[in-house]
């Protein structure tokens, strides 16, 4: 493996045919800075272009997957400073991530959740092909509390599984969704003992990497066709 860029906010490692991508801003709880988003997009684009990579695992270092957006940006939204412009910028970034996840990355993306996945972090989970979650972790989409719309991935993907009344409560109140409830609604595929989500995700990704790439690509197209059409 080549040496990691000391300024990078993600750590990338090959594990056989699996590419492990770890968010690496633990001092900021992996908050979604522009640099982090750029580094993550670059890592996923590289994975898409590398024929030797058959699956990708996304996880976070530190206390949780991600605490969401940068606090400074949210504070500006709350105070109304350039709110419309900032919301457009956030929407553009979200659309870019969605296009990347659903259109460009034809390989399976497994997201490991430990601690918490809030806002942007919850969106990463929604964009995963498979999400594996520690049994003491939680999801949370609190954008409504800041007077802005929920992350599109959460709104579009979660609405396929969660009854409208329940989803209104989850998104409207911005409440925490514990692992057992996330599994019950189908927001994650597996719940594992605390501290083992990344290991379980790597094991699952290694299994998926053994499936013919053409077959997995066909599965992704079939599973995500409806969401991609709504985002187009």
TrEMBL record:
Q: Which GO terms fall under molecular function for this chain's record?
A: isomerase activity
Q: What family, per the record?
A: Belongs to the enoyl-CoA hydratase/isomerase family.
Under the heading InterPro entries, the entry gives: ClpP/crotonase-like_dom_sf, Enoyl-CoA_hydra/iso
Keyword annotations for this protein, in alphabetical order, are: Isomerase
Keyword Translocase found? no
Name this protein carries in UniProt: Enoyl-CoA hydratase/isomerase
Superkingdom of the source? Bacteria
Identify one Pfam family in the record: ECH_1
Organism in which the protein naturally occurs:
Trujillonella endophytica
């Amino acid at each position: 493996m080549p040496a990691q860029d000391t300024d990078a906010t993600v750590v990338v490692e090959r594990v056989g045919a699996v590419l492990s991508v770890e968010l690496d801003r633990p001092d900021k709880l992996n908050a979604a800075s522009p640099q982090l988003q750029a580094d993550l997009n670059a890592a996923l684009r590289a994975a898409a272009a590398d024929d030797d990579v058959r699956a990708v695992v996304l996880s976070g270092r530190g206390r949780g997957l991600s605490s969401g957006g940068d606090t400074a940006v949210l504070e500006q939204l709350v105070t109304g400073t350039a709110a419309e412009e900032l919301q457009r910028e956030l929407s553009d970034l979200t659309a870019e991530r969605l296009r990347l996840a659903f259109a460009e990355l034809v390989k399976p993306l497994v997201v490991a959740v430990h601690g918490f996945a809030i806002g942007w972090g919850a969106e990463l989970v929604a964009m995963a092909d498979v999400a594996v979650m520690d049994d003491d972790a939680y999801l949370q989409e609190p954008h409504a509390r800041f007077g802005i719309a929920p992350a599109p991935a959460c709104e579009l993907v979660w609405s396929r599984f969660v009854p409208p009344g329940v989803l209104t409560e989850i998104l409207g109140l911005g409440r925490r969704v514990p692992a057992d409830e996330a599994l019950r609604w189908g927001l994650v595929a597996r719940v594992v003992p605390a501290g083992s989500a990344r290991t379980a995700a790597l094991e699952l990704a290694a299994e998926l990497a053994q499936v013919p790439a053409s077959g997995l690509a066909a599965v992704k197209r079939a599973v995500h066709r409806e969401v991609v059409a709504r985002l187009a």
